[in-house]
Amino acid sequence: MWGRTLQFLPNAKDREGLLPWVIGVMLFLCTLAVASAFAINSGVARWSSGLTSNITVQIIVADEAARTQQTEAALRLLEATPGIVSAEILASSEVMALVSPWLGDLPLDAGLPVPNLIDITLEPEANINIQALGERLRATAAGAVIDDHQAWLSQILDLATMIQVIMTAVVFMVILSTIAIVIFGCRAGLATHADSIEIMHLMGAEDRVICHAFDLKYLKHGLKGGILGVVLAGITLWLTSSIATDLGEGLVSSVLPSNNGNVWLLLLPLAAAGLTTITARLTVHRALQDMM
Fold first, then answer.
1. What is the DSSP-derived secondary structure letter of residue 110?
2. Cβ–Cβ under 8 Å, residues 83 and 122
């Protein structure tokens, strides 16, 4: 008779019925934190790879003829530099398109003093001394300014690292909070049914039978809460990604989670169920040992 699940624990109508909702909220926060951390890592890496493989040279000279002459001289130097795959002068229309988000759509004959830009593509893992290259460029073209994006990119990577650390801390706090909630629920259930447990002990019931009853109860709580939290988090991530597609392919959209890459989120309800079950087993087993 002791092989069956004991029916002395609170049912869904009792106060413990709120536990799946609490677990669901916890897993909702955990899912968002984990998905965001992975998305920031992959998105920033993907977005920054284009910057690390490209550098830009600006020719800032007021006189148009001198600017054109220095641009051609700089272009010849760049094409002869080892480690550079290609160097192309951006057309005026392309330069105006780059500044249009700040200045609006301006005609090409607006008279705006826009520098010439040379887009440089580097060989993969090319070891180029940017400082030495900049000095050679200035010796060839006095108005040349090289921009390797490193200073700005370093700030972006530092920010991404800090966000990932915060997200990781959130995940650990959520896990610890979930464990604490399960421990509290188990102890409350044991205290409520202490008399029944004592009678079952007198009737010969072993601790593993009582632990098994709690295991099944909290396994169901973990699965219900896990599924609820992951579903809500999945809907939130999908809505966020859908709205962000209207912003284009910039930094914001590149660090958002990919809908196709979040299949692993389906494993989180199982992880939540395992966490609640193991926590309940250890808590109940220790409490029963203290009762002896």
1. S
2. yes
Per residue in 163-200, pLDDT (tens digit) is: 888 888 988 998 999 899 888 888 887 777 777 777 77
Q: Which long-range contacts link 250-258 to residues 24+ away (Cβ below 8 Å)?
A: 251/47, 251/156, 254/43, 254/44, 254/46, 254/47, 255/39, 255/40, 255/43, 255/44, 255/47, 255/160, 256/39, 256/43, 257/35, 257/36, 257/38, 257/39, 258/39, 258/42
The pLDDT-based confidence of 126 (bands split at 50, 70, 90) is low
Tokens of 71: 């641009």
Q: How many C-beta atoms surround the C-beta of residue 103 within 10 A? A: 12
Quick one: 41 and 159 in the same domain? yes
Asked whether residue 240 is domain-assigned, the answer is yes
Which of 23, 16, 41 has the alpha carbon at shortest distance from 232? 23
Domain residues for the domain of 127 are 61-142
C-alpha of 144 from chain center: 38
As a whole number of angstroms, the distance between CA 32 and CA 231 comes to 11
